[in-house]
Amino acid sequence: MNITGKNLIAGEWSGDTTNGFSAMNAVTNQAMNEKFADASEQEIDQAIGKANQAFYSYSQLSAEKRALFLRTIGEQILALGDDLVTMACAETGLPAMRIQGERGRTIGQLGLFANLLEQGEYQAVVDLADANRQPLPKPETRLGYLPLGAVAVFAASNFPLAFSTAGGDTASALAAGCPVVMKAHAAHPGTAELVAQAINKAIEICSIDAGVFSLIQGKNYGISSQIVTHPLIKAVGFTGSERVGMILQRQINERAEPIPFYGELGSVNPQFILANKLADDAQGLAQALVASLMMAQGQFCTSPGIWAYVSDENTPVFEKSAAQAISETSAGVMLTPSMATSYNSIVAQWQNISGVECLAQGKKPEKGQEHFCSAALFATDLATFKANEALHEEVFGSSALIVRCDSQAQLMEFINLLNGSLTASIHASEQDVNIAKQVALSAAHKVGRLIYNQMPTGVEVCASMNHGGPFPASTQIRTTSVGSEAIKRFQRPICYQNMPDELLPSLLKS
Amino acid sequence: MNITGKNLIAGEWSGDTTNGFSAMNAVTNQAMNEKFADASEQEIDQAIGKANQAFYSYSQLSAEKRALFLRTIGEQILALGDDLVTMACAETGLPAMRIQGERGRTIGQLGLFANLLEQGEYQAVVDLADANRQPLPKPETRLGYLPLGAVAVFAASNFPLAFSTAGGDTASALAAGCPVVMKAHAAHPGTAELVAQAINKAIEICSIDAGVFSLIQGKNYGISSQIVTHPLIKAVGFTGSERVGMILQRQINERAEPIPFYGELGSVNPQFILANKLADDAQGLAQALVASLMMAQGQFCTSPGIWAYVSDENTPVFEKSAAQAISETSAGVMLTPSMATSYNSIVAQWQNISGVECLAQGKKPEKGQEHFCSAALFATDLATFKANEALHEEVFGSSALIVRCDSQAQLMEFINLLNGSLTASIHASEQDVNIAKQVALSAAHKVGRLIYNQMPTGVEVCASMNHGGPFPASTQIRTTSVGSEAIKRFQRPICYQNMPDELLPSLLKS
């Protein structure tokens, strides 16, 4: 495996790795061999300048050529073969099957946008002229879309492929006609470099301006700040913690020109469990929720973090089954040592909140795996939930909180207390329809995706997907980071009035 | 005419006008008789609280009922009769015909959104389930839209009806299902109250929750700050100056929850004049541009403020004709005394910029009309334009600047120097097609609407309109404040997964 450790600046590998940083092997908890160079101010400025230069030609590239470019990126990622899987597994601790699946999703996303481009990336809206209209003639107007310009994307820790170097943000920005300056995640720089190599090859194969893609490596916070405040950056995509996301948001707020910041910052994904569903199959539902919670050790943005119901004769069965399932789970590796520390610290704090009961914990880590984390299941009542803001926030990892309500009114009050989330699920039987309707109406205003009798983990990549929602799920509630609508984040409308055909973009010609 | 001078707080007229403020009669430059009460903190908090309470029921109102409500508002505005025209003319100095036309547009805008609601306010996107898909079954997902919540709207000085109390922002927010808290403009509070009376009647007639609309009067800056930072306000619409708009933007940036700020803040609307068009009819084009510039004394957001061409043998004819037309214009009344002061001060400053030539000024104000303003036409070269940031900014009023380029390369450089604008026009003949193509490609990235051989003033209210553009034209480049797409500013996507029909919104049912 050929890792340079350098930054890719518009087709040139650049930087000195001598004093570079290394990623941690997540499973062994040891620093990896490869050294990576923090990008210099000059390199970042070059990358953004070249992206801006490339914008003019790239934005005019035909939809067919952009589609071919996206598909070629996918092919080149696949051509990386097992090297990519080995590297991503080592850097993230995620199992090979998961990485292989995520690679398929990443290539699938590139293909989705390629299809969209080939089918016409948007629908033109045309109002014809009417010279005889009174009191004034009506002009001809045609509504189309233009790409925004150079886009900065920050890789996510928890999806080293699908939300990283050639992930959904990059794919949708490139599809829209925007060059991308990618900030690699310091937890998986090797994976980032391999994928950047694949993109770079696709650029060569398709004879595209190399400024269209640059990869910035770095552990230094100044790097992110320089990128998001650069006047030539016209939009930013980010998936990560609320703390880091809001630092970036505040830096972006200081810009002379406001630009959109697409930050996906956190989600508790509440699960509303209704009475007849519990009566039907308390045990099955408990096991399914624990299985969903345990996916990737709870490190999915859609992990079911808060479960709520009105206590009745079936809820003890549910709690017992869930506690049993949790206690049987093995400790698991986290994406980074700092995430493990943070998870363990929150679980320890919750043990000490008065009114919060720890129903079960997973098995303790085995010897030599002290950096692994154990699952946890807590329960509380509405009054305690109301009084403790900490309980409203996402715990990144496999911890869930049951909120026991004593009435349907309390359940409705609980919904109103929730912060925004990416998703919520309603678990109901047909007999629950009346309360399910009420829950759906209220819960809809708290989430980007409302699910019925399915688990929140797993995000379908399709035209009708919405992966966003009220803050902190997203800083831009009107947008999705998954699915074909994601392209719209990097385009904006333009109206052409009375314009002759030869001056119109091809999708708008008569 | 019955003016209370009070605030309308969810159906109740509230406030003490004893120490209230008065608008100026724009033409006479005298304070008007009516006194208006600055809203108190408590009144504002009440208005927003009631808007939030009304959100739940209003957002669930059927599209047909919302459409009827919008049409009823239009009918009630028309029923105000001449009182509205008299009041608006006095407060703004705009002539009666203009106000009557603007009233028609305002009612037309309400009707446009009513039509949209009746036809289905959005197109559902549906992906059906596939239980047999490998490796995982595919869930059913349906993409729809939800209103954001209570919206704050700020009235514009220059459109007392179409961009004010029941203007485009209010109409699109109410259409979307969002209650509106309206901040009246202190220059036309009487017009605002009359229109608020009409909305209030429509609320009664349609039996809608009175919290859906409140009118806040005030001259005190703290009022705006309290409104935009209130946690229950979920979006803000504003049309006004860059200075005031950016004060609001910075206050909004301090919120815990980011919300969209739709600010339309300024536009120079560049006019690109190509050689063969000039050769064809330099005089006719000069006269048409001056006529466009003089509309509403240059106080249109789409007023043509900068005109550019490559100097040749025809440009002196153009300049002479334009100068002649400007010199024949009478001085005109401005919307407010402070706008007149500001306009006169900028025109005086420009006289002193080295490299800027004053080609002509309109007639001086007559006796007793010293607060009226005279048009002005300036000319400069690219080097001077480049060196003086002040020349890049909108002058609110009837002043235009000609930028004389000495080559097509200079013209292209000029385009790249421009700030964002709502519109640009290309004035060309068929023989200009090659340079017109280049200008169109570059200019498109600077504007929200690109026009060919028509004037920028006059904004068609239709499905394909875009009234927005790169900053400072808009703080949210992806949105329009005019036309049917404006409704999307106040809605956001939601995906329903595996949801039974009885729990889906009507537009998404099978």
- Biggest beta sheet summary of chain A: 7 strands, mixed
Note the quaternary state here.
homodimer
Q: Biggest sheet of chain A: strands side by side, in what order?
A: 14-15-16-13-12-17-18
Report mean pLDDT of chain A, rounded to a whole number: 97
What structural category arises from helix and sheet content of chain A?
alpha/beta
Radius of gyration of chain A: 24 Å
- Tally the beta strands of chain A: 19
Q: Which protein chains are joined by the largest interface, and how many residues does each one contribute?
A: A-B, 70 and 69 residues
**What portion of the residues of chain A fall into strands of 2 or more residues?**
15-25%
- Sum up the overall morphology of chain A in one term: globular
Which consecutive residue ranges of chain A, at least 5 long each, have pLDDT under 50? none
Query: What gap, in angstroms, lies between the N and C termini of chain A?
Result: 52 Å
Number of discrete helical segments of chain A: 14
Helix content of chain A: 25-40%
Give your account of this protein's structure:
Two copies of one chain form a homodimer. With 510 residues, the first copy, chain A, is of the alpha/beta class. Chain A contains 14 helices and 19 strands. A seven-stranded mixed sheet of chain A has the order 14-15-16-13-12-17-18, sandwiched between helices. In chain A, strand 17 (421-427), helix 14 (433-444) and strand 18 form a beta-alpha-beta unit. In chain A, helix 4 packs parallel to helix 5. The model of chain A has no long low-confidence stretch (mean pLDDT 97). Chains A and B meet through strand 5, strand 6, helix 8, helix 14 and strand 18 of A and strand 5, strand 6, helix 8, helix 14 and strand 18 of B. Strand 19 (491-497) of chain A pairs parallel with strand 18 of chain B.
